[in-house]
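Re: your question about Arsenic transporter

S., sorry for the slow reply, the queue was backed up all week. Below is exactly what I fed in.
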Amino acid sequence: MIYALILFAITYVLMLAFSKYRPVIALCSAVVFMVSGMLPADQIFSSIDFNVIMMIAGTMGLVQLFIDSRMPARLADLVMERVGTVQAAAVALALFAGIISAFVDNVATVLMVAPVALEICRKLKTNPVPFIIGIAVSSNLQGAATLVGDTTAIMLGSYADMSFLDFFFYKGKPGMFFAVELGALISAAILAFIFRKEKGRIERNSTPTPVNDYVPSFLLLGTIVLLIAASFIPEKPSITNGLICLTLLAIGLVYNFFKKKNLDAITGPLKAIDFETIGILVGLFLIIGGISNMGVIDAAANLLAHLGGGNVFILYTIIVWASVLISAFIDNIPYTATMLPVVTGLAANLGIDPTLFYFGLLSGATLGGNITPIGASANITGIGILRKEGYEVKTSDFPRIGIPFTLAAVIPAYIYLWVFFH
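Result:
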């Protein structure tokens, strides 16, 4: 276990220090985990979240068709007509991404909203890096708002037998949704403060950008609708969302081919798939699988369980803030899966309802990924989009927005959940 932890720590330090080489670092570390036997051969494929990989590939291709249709440019015009300053545009886009992310996977949300943000920044001749980071962290936040917003929320709902409505009102009390929205309001004010210097006025475009094809927009909208609908299907295959995204991409490619009558109609959108981003994610999935197999995550969970000394408030505090810190570096899915039975046992030993610990765990684990650029799949996806546009995101760029945003979102939820569920 010690060797796995050391290799894991070295990998993350190198990825944070050498941002240009993250795919190579992640994949090389994954190879070491596999060759050394720390990740057994029979666990390699199960460690990779193919649903996320397929969703990214399918949505990236769809988004390229969406961009080619010039719909993002048209939406950018609409946003610019309704907001007065660059600051307002940045906050509005982050909130818009958050609303979508409450019902659609965070990665898909970033891929859908980012083209609009890029188009706005292109027209305003401003740096898109903070815009995309704002969209990513807001997407991560709202993933905990509903049962269908994030994998961690789905896991909690399944484990605790919660319904979609239980996230709004649970056992006669306002539920997780309101804790998240309270954090969202305060974090929106933080975003406004971060963008306080962006006071440039937005000039309205007298001739709005014409859209040359509405089919890609309908396909993207159909993706959102189908992802929401699929979230209500019990015991569905784990790759359902990925299959939805790839199927709609295939429909879009066939349509594009018959419309343009050339091979570029297919190869163009496929070239938009960012294999560097996919490489980082595959590497990280394998690394997390390795440290999980070696007992690192179990050890972290057991350590948390022994730190509270039987005091409910101390245990709750540890669960929330340790989850924030751990999820900044460890994928929150295996961490949440490990911690759910741990916090259930803690609550049983204390003779209390486990809801406080459940929601505290969800809040901390979902939002911790906002602290580092590689703490969540949505962050990695956003950085990949920026890299393709020629913008390199420094390791310091992300915490500048992610840390104050996380604190502004977690602290209100932390207080709220204690008041209503202790």
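The first helix runs from residue 2 to 17. The chain is about 70% helix and 0% strand.

Happy to talk it through on Thursday.
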